[in-house]
């Protein structure tokens, strides 16, 4: 991989291990890819090697990588028997759960083609994704509870770079994507670790301020958007760092610019319009609006990809409700690039967003110790899916409703007040 310098990869690896995972000397590390693709892409190997070395330097006992190759999923969708797409090995979900329950760290690396599945029959793709989502759900729930320290980072891949920078010649595409990752992960700063410490401290100050307010609802107003999102009692704003069950402070996403919490699953009303395309299930869904009543999606409109969006919101009972709302200023570094990355890790840091599907238990005070039923009673949404879409823009205003019914501005024209 000639476009990413060894020095940059070494810095990225060190940042991932020390600040991202905060890997502890007694831990093992398992490196995976986006779960639906079955493992870490082969193109990420140079970064994986540096991360492995950095993890051993930090005292890791054992570092393992589960490799995946998305071409193999393509072969399955083309050649496997049509009635076989609910097949799933027991060992994979079991291995993930065992690793996490033993208190070891997990890192997912994205180096994939956002369009990989677009030319395959949507019903077969949906069958594979649903079977995967069902089987890895116990693992996802552990992650959602921060059972252990975990993280997500990215490495450039040729197919992804071609999608993000279609106007560049192929040799420049990889360099441009690595350059963006380098800048957004602050790897070009004189001391990237110090830069992250001060950025994470600023995010912590923002969440402290919002937690002190305990708004009962947020009101969003913008072009095509008039939406009220109720916030449950005890909702927690989270950003930057999280704490694992064993007390390890880790920063799961690099980069990260958002602060987020959970909506009350039954108290979302009005219409929200997306401000960026959503890449889901290998399809680009564009120019879409969702209308909610008492928390549930009651109308779906999209200029492109409406059928896929309709399938998403009917995937299970919780897929038609919101599980996350996040505030990101419109001038965040990711927004400033003006680039659409077709990947949530980056795109969710470019704009305020909400997510259809599961809520994170750690966004409710005491939520991680709650049973599923108690969490739902408190307003937490339950689903096998969690899909973010962007609603922020320089034209978005957000108001906070206080317990006494008074209203105050939180964001104006896409920026913090
Ligand atoms: Zn988010
Ligand atoms: Zn999300």
Structural class computed from helices and strand pairing: alpha+beta
Globular, elongated, flat, extended or rod-shaped: what is the shape? globular
Number of strands: 22
Number of separate domains? 2
Largest sheet: 9 strands, antiparallel
Q: What is the mean pLDDT?
A: 94
Low-confidence runs: none
Q: What's the number of helices? A: 13
Distance separating the two termini = 43 Å
Please estimate the helix content: 25-40%
What is the gyration radius calculated from CA atoms? 20 Å
Bound molecules: zinc ion
Binned strand content:
15-25%
Description:
With 417 residues, the chain is α+β, with helices and mostly antiparallel strands. The chain folds into two domains: 4-184, Thermophilic metalloprotease-like (3-Layer(aba) Sandwich); 194-416, no CATH class. 33% of the residues lie in helices and 25% in strands. It contains 13 helices and 22 strands. The chain has helices at 6-21, 45-57, 70-79, 91-101, 122-135, 137-144, 158-164, 170-184, 192-213, 306-313, 333-337, 344-347, 372-377, and strands at 28-32, 40-41, 62-65, 67-68, 105-110, 150-154, 217-222, 225-230, 238-239, 242-243, 249-250, 259-261, 268-273, 278-280, 283-293, 296-304, 322-327, 353-357, 386-390, 397-401, 407-412, 415-416. The strands form five sheets. Strands 7, 8, 13, 14, 15, 16, 20, 21 and 22 form a nine-stranded antiparallel beta sheet that branches. Helix 7 (158-164) packs across helix 8. The longest helix has 22 residues, at 192-213. The relative contact order is 0.12. The site of one zinc ion has 7 residues, from strand 17.
